[in-house]
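**Backbone description:**
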Amino acid sequence: MDKPRTGYAEKQRLRRTLMIVAAVAVIVLVSVGIRKIGPAAPPVRRETLWIDTVKRGSMVIEVRGPGTLVPVDIRVIAAPVEGRVERIPALPGATVQADTVLLELTDPEVEQAAVEAESQLRAAEADYEDLRAQLESQLLSQQAQVSATRSTAEEAKLQAEADEVLGKDGIISNINLKKSRLRAAQTEKQSQIEAQRYSQSQRSNQAQLAAQRARVDQSRALYELRRRQLDSLKVRAGIPGVLQELPMQVGQRVTPGTTLARVARPENLKAELRIPEGQARDVVMGMPASIDTRNGVVRGRVIRVAPSAQEGSVIVDVAFDGPLPRGARPNLTVDGTIQLDRLDNVLYIGRPAVGQSGDTVQLFKLAKDSNEATRVPVKLGRSSVTTMEIVSGLNVGDEVILSDTSGQDGFDRIRLE
């Protein structure tokens, strides 16, 4: 007869309870472990990344901008008077000299004014000569009067001296001697008066001639002005060079100040760079620069910085230190680089895809002997065209991903394949 088993059900329940508790504990431990491990590092192909190594040494601070070659010597020719285009003997692109006629204008009013001004000048010159002749004749008459009174005074003086001797000897009376003395004094006074009148006439004549000469000079200045206006109807280049623009047509009416032509000397060029206004604040005159003409690089220096920005750029002019390569001509597109400063003994890398000077950015640093990269905060310093100073966060020899990694913003690690 079998004996009934006691406590078996309780053991089974206890065993099931322990198994459930163990299973729950395992699930909890696995969940906590998975949470601590975090999401798996996403894979990224190495050949699609730009990876650079942190270096220590000298770093050149530069700014870069596009530009064009422009002539240093440019003459913009404006219409000096109103007129109508009669003839255009030169066309854009032609080599011209200073006296080359670019176009001819006509204006009857200017021509008439020149003729009238010449007539007025000739009349003024004739009046001057006539006045000068009259005054010289009058002055000669006064000069003769002075000579006559002087002669009379000398005769009276001699007679008085002779009468003095005769008076002492008692040959003539005292009354005759006094008359002789009086006559000598009167003629001497009259001679002095005539001499003074002659001097005053000379000064008066000079003043009258000066006034008439001023009128002649005024007429001559007006004539020269009208003659220049007449001559300016033949528009000349003014400098040797190449005629760049001539936007006129035969028969066209122009007003004073209208731009007629543009002449430049193509052998003397400068680079006109457009530097972003955020980078141009440190550019000053005299800084070294290099200009890439697509056919060679030429050294130069900054000679002008525009005082204001236009469309987000500042115009910077660069003069060349040496000859330009063959093929350099006005309006040729170039690239310019200006050296702002040189930093010695600093940490630097290539310029990252994100971040500006003074920013703290998150960059992926490659782990040594591993195919993983970890995100680290990096403090950036001064920037150049292709390099960036490192203030903190990296050391010499660290390899850093400089490419745009915005696609991995949710991950602190990535795996390179």
Observations:
- The first strand starts at residue 43 and ends at 44.
- The chain is about 35% helix and 35% strand.
- The mean pLDDT is 85.
